[in-house]
Amino acid sequence: MKYFEDVKVGESYESRAVAVTEEDIVDFATQFDPQPFHTEPSAAKDTMFGDLVASGWHTAALCHRLSLEILNEAGWGAGIGRGIEELKWIDPLYVGDTLRIEYEIVDKSRDSSPDAYGNIRSRISGYNQHDECIITYRGNGMLQCRNSNVG
Where does the record place a coiled coil (predicted)? Predict the structure, then answer.
């Protein structure tokens, strides 16, 4: 298991790519972001996007899922999310597009978190199949320290 002390600033990971289907887009948006350019293919054609697009929140949720996959594969220990900053939706994710992420550790500290955890700041960037960056944000979390009494 990887603990706070094992993490290095500058450490980076890349995820697998996931494909996004029309059904994925409509299902997510119907529940969480019911706007015509996310839920109605025919109506979406008359919008600024010209076609059905994933909700930005759907894109962010996919990035989060991919982040967890790569961190679990890398053997990270118990982590706790504390929020995100500087979320930017640069371009939409269309039906049939793929999404992959690059995840980089940009800072770590122990100054304000409980003794059992250290603070980790990361930069997450999502790319489509053309290697165009379509979403970016900074994640803030806490990672368990080696000598904690957690768990």
Answer: none
Torsion angle of the four alpha carbons 44, 64, 128, 18, in this order, in degrees rounded to the nearest 10: -90
Taken as a whole, the chain contains a residue count of 151
Collect all residues with Cβ–Cβ distance below 8 Å to 62 and sequence separation of at least 6.
18, 20, 93, 99, 126
* Matching residue, tokens 């900074």: 138
The residue written with tokens 């955890």 in the block is: 117
Domain ranges of the chain: 4-144
Work out the burial of residue 111: count CB atoms within 10 Å of its CB; fewer than 13 is exposed, 13-18 middle, 19 or more buried: exposed
Write down the pLDDT at residue 113.
Answer: 53
pTM to 2 decimals?
Answer: 0.92
pLDDT score recorded for residue 149: 64
The CATH fold assigned to 4-144 is Thiol Ester Dehydrase; Chain A (3.10.129)
Regarding predicted confidence, which is higher, 149 or 113?
149
Cα(141)–Cα(7) distance, rounded to whole angstroms? 13
